[in-house]
Amino acid sequence: MHPILADRHRLLAYVAAWELLGGLLSALLVLTGNFSWGPALSLAVPLAAVYAFVCLGAFWACRAAPLGTGLLPVAGTQLAAAALSAALWLLASRVWAATLESLDFFPGLIDRQRRAAPLLFGMGFLLFLLAAALHYILVAFEDSRRAETEALRFQILSRDAELRALRAQIHPHFLFNSLNSINALIGSRPDEARKVCLLLADFLRRSLALGARERVPLAEELALAEDLLAIERVRFGARLRFAPRVEEAALTCLVPPLLLQPLVENAVTHGIAQCLEGGTVRLEARRGAERLLLSIENPRDAGAPARKGTGIGIENVRRRLETLYGREAELRLHPAGDSFRVELELPAGTS
Fold first, then answer.
1. What does the alpha-carbon distance between residue 319 and residue 52 come to, in Å, rounded to a whole number?
2. CB distance 225 to 283 below 8 Å
3. What whole-number distance in Å separates Cα of residue 86 and Cα of residue 153?
4. In this predicted model, what pLDDT tens digit does every residue of 198-235 receive, in sequence order?
5. Residues with Cβ < 8 Å from 158, sequence gap 6 or more?
6. Does any domain span residue 2?
7. Is the domain of 212 the same as that of 273?
């Protein structure tokens, strides 16, 4: 659609500008000595309003001959369109002058219009070229805005694709660890292996439901983290303890689904599992004025060699936060001798 016709305010401004040009044309007609102000205004102002819509055709002429096609095609197209439009305007002025004279408003107006025909044609020609220049600017503006919209659309699609890929990394990583646990239990503790299978099936069912949503309340994320720890507790028994400390106000904050799972999993796999006596996974959640603060801390054996795969879950969380929040979210790591703490800070939205 024409960019001027698509916006009511833009159209009103455009017509108002043409009415000012109609007043200017009236002054030129008066200066020729053939018109007084009454006939000049009566002829020029309505014609300017009509010609305003004729010159909207310059938009399609600009589309047919864009600036990048070269000087000759552009000049030829616009000069031909300007000549045709000016001729139509001259014809319209003749008809309008005849109409006014037939109504006995301005006797002799047709003759005065005939003497002013070169001026009217020349003004029509120049005004169309001016309108063409304006439309080239509008076309460039519309193309630029369309390009920005397309770039934004592709950026959103790219972000969504990255988020889907990051989410897809979560379950395979967790399943790999869980299946290893089941494999270790089958020979020596088959009943517990069966229990882990049931807990794992229930956990996956709930996590898939959460993962399909854009945001989930922190309370649901915490419940899923506790389900994960219930699976791990079958393997570690009393060696694995969990100490959550969550403010009531933080429970309703919305967070990306499956945000805590890889962090809790890391705390068990790379922390508790390496400590002979086990230890406690401590999870804290606090809500500030506009920020949600989360931390997960676990003991570790500082002298133990790093296990293969360390950091996958943390890097996954970091990239998801960057994709979703940009600089509004932050992930900080605090390794301190016999403990390891991960801190998250993100907007505390509830809707």
1. 54
2. yes
3. 42
4. 888 888 788 778 777 888 999 999 998 998 898 888 87
5. none
6. no
7. yes
What is the total count of domains within the chain?
2
Structural Rg of the chain based on CA atoms? 38
Q: Domain span at residue 147?
A: 8-151
Do 196 and 143 belong together in one domain? Answer: no
Q: Which residue has the tokens 């393997």?
A: 235
Length of the chain: 351
Residue scoring higher pLDDT (264 or 154): 264
Q: Is 67 part of a structural domain of the chain? A: yes
